[in-house]
């Protein structure tokens, strides 16, 4: 390995011979220019890039959480409507109690404030096969915690259950 003085001397000799042919710029001038170009514009880029990526990841995380919460709440509404329809499908149970039962289950599952936004209605229908079916329809809107996506999410769920007939009352309704 060459000593520092020898390297410097060889560098100056090379500059004196070769670099005047390249427009009079010496090697030390080029090194200084390259250092100036590389050092100043890159300062702080890492912080800016991190902030940009972090903001995108936070919005992505909040969007995923909103979808999860909506799907979970929708599943609770489906379960409540189904349970209400099954309850009213039992023998000797009035169909009007299906909606009440579904709303009770909603209040237990998603809380009274959110359950108040959803109304459930029960009715009896004739199935094409001749059976009487109890239908519970729950409709409403759910608030969003992540406002940039939108304000409210609509919920519309229907559940059906075949009504049991009482052997003493073959028509299916107790009197």
Give me the oligomer status.
single chain
Strand order of the largest sheet: 1-2-3
> How many strands appear in the DSSP assignment?
3
How do the helices and strands follow one another from N- to C-terminus?
A: HHHHHEEE
- What proportion of the residues form beta strands (DSSP E)? 15-25%
Let me know the average pLDDT: 79
The unreliable regions are none
DSSP helical segment count = 5
Please give the largest β-sheet: 3 strands, antiparallel
Round the Cα radius of gyration to an integer and report it.
Answer: 38 Å
What is the structure about, briefly put?
53% of the residues lie in helices and 18% in strands.
Explain what you see.
The chain has 175 residues and is an alpha+beta fold. It has a domain of 112 residues. 53% of the residues lie in helices and 18% in strands. It is built from five helices and three strands. Strands 1-2-3 form a three-stranded antiparallel β-sheet. A hairpin with an 8-residue loop joins strand 2 and strand 3. Helix 3 runs antiparallel to helix 4. The mean pLDDT is 79.
């Amino acid at each position: 390995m060459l000593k520092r003085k020898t390297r410097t001397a060889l560098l100056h000799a090379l500059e004196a011979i070769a670099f005047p042919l390249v427009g009079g710029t010496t090697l030390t001038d080029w090194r200084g220019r390259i250092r100036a170009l590389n050092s100043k514009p890159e300062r702080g880029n890492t912080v800016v890039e991190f902030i940009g990526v972090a903001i995108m990841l936070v919005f992505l995380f909040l969007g995923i959480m909103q979808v999860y919460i909506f799907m979970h709440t929708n599943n609770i509404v489906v379960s409540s409507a189904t349970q209400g329809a099954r309850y009213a499908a039992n023998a000797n149970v009035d169909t009007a109690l299906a909606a009440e039962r579904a709303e009770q289950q909603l209040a237990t599952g998603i809380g009274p404030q959110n359950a108040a936004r959803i109304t459930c209605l029960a009715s009896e229908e004739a199935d094409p096969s001749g059976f009487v079916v109890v239908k519970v329809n729950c409709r409403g809107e759910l608030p969003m915690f992540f406002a940039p996506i939108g304000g409210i999410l609509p919920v519309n769920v229907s559940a059906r259950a075949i009504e049991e007939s009482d052997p003493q009352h073959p028509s299916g309704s107790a009197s």
